[in-house]
Amino acid sequence: MRHCSAAAAIIFFALLLVCSPFLAKTKAQGAAAGAGRQPVVIELFTSEGCSSCPPADTLLQQLELQQPVAGAEIIALEEHVDYWNHDGWTDPFSSAEWTQRQQDYAALFKNDPYTPELVVDGHSQFVGNNPRKAEFEIEKAAHDLKTEIAITPGNAEAKGSQRFTVSVGKLTQNRAGDVAEVWLAVTEDGLHSSVSLGENAGRVLHHVATLRSLRKIGVADGNQASVSFTGDAIVKFNSHWDLANLHVTIFVQEKKGREILGAASTKIKS
Asked: Which residues contact 13 (CB under 8 A, 6 or more apart)?
């Protein structure tokens, strides 16, 4: 479980020059095209110990902040794996859970886990610092039928927690015999590290949509004609998290096929 060769970084910068018009699109342009956007979940498997990962981290930031793909509402999840931690630097945001999630994708795609890796809506994967491929796959995913999801923030519960009401509409494209699981993710923007060891020693790395927690809150019923799942979920916030930078994302994902059928995200009211 290693990263791509150093040549991947060279290829990234070459692609960056070719795709500069794509990367230069402003957030204002993205907002102007906001009507009718379909949610697309992009997962970046990354590590602060991987020298090929910072360009991918930067690309993820650009995709989430600029929203440059017409017709797509890009929902980012940055998942730090832990298998780089033995190479000199322990990534403070890494988790064995995110490593296992990547391994589940690897079994589906029949490849070995690597960093950086981008997975779009659970059904396409590629080297995570390739902006042209990212734009292509996101645009393609935005044309798929999506399951409608609504998140309604409720009042604060006990200190450091909040209730959310989740509603999932009729399932779209759910394969027969597969289970559509409903997942709740908490992500945090604005995290950074001053790396002192390993391949990125001496660098300050910045992150966006860093995955803080992920849990299954239910299963959607594909036999229902309108609402396939509804329920409340209480989210407990770690005292080390910055509430002003948190988002809660709900997505529905097939258990076996791994395809993400729909998603929605909301910012926490601090």
From this structure: 55
- CA 25/CA 17 separation, integer angstroms: 14
Q: Are 44 and 62 in contact (CB under 8 A)?
A: no
Task: Provide the domain limits for residue 88.
Answer: 7-267
DSSP calls for 126-192:
EETT-HHHHHHHHHHHHTS----EEEEEEEE-STTEEEEEEEEES--SPPTT--EEEEEEEEESS-E
Does position 20 have pLDDT exceeding 90, yes or no? no
- Taking alpha carbons only, the member of 191, 205, 194 closest to residue 246 is 191
State how far the Cα of 93 lies from the Cα of 87, in Å rounded to an integer. Answer: 16
d(CA 125, CA 192): 26
Say which CATH number the domain at 196 has.
2.60.40.10
Q: CA-to-CA distance for 40 and 73, rounded, in angstroms?
A: 6
- In the chain, how many domains are there? 1
Edge-to-edge strands, sheet with 38-46: 124-127, 117-120, 38-46, 72-80, 210-220, 180-188, 246-254, 260-267
Contacts of 100 (CB under 8 A, 6+ apart): none
Among 178, 204, 200, CA closest to 190: 204
Question: Amino acid identity, residue 258?
Answer: R
pLDDT, position 35 = 55
Give the span between the Cα atoms of 75 and 121, in whole angstroms: 10
Q: Which of 208, 233, 230, 234 is closest to 220 using CA atoms?
A: 230
User: Does 2 fall in a domain?
Assistant: no
- Render pLDDT for 73-99 as a digit per residue (tens, 0 to 9): 999 999 999 999 999 999 999 999 999
